[in-house]
Amino acid sequence: MRSRFTNSLFDLYEKIGDIQGKAASLTMLGQLLADEKQDFKTALEYLQESFEIFEHLKSPDAQTVKEIIDKIRTAQINLINKDSSEIISPYRELIENIRELGIGY
Q: What pTM was computed for the model?
């Protein structure tokens, strides 16, 4: 569930026509939720929305977000399997992918 602030932020992006900025913010929030809160469900929802926007824009960032989604799903499965050594690796790669998007983390 998005906060009122988050909804306002995304509404502002749409109002000013910065759909790519909205997608980048969704990516960052999704990554933070997965990394800091282990809220994989919400993280994947944000990332899926970001992916769809980037895909609609025909942005190469769509592929990067898809890879992030896949890594979070892998981390989620590994967490279920309690294989901690396998949990950490996708997150390290995930952070690098976020940096490649240029949205900073």
A: 0.70
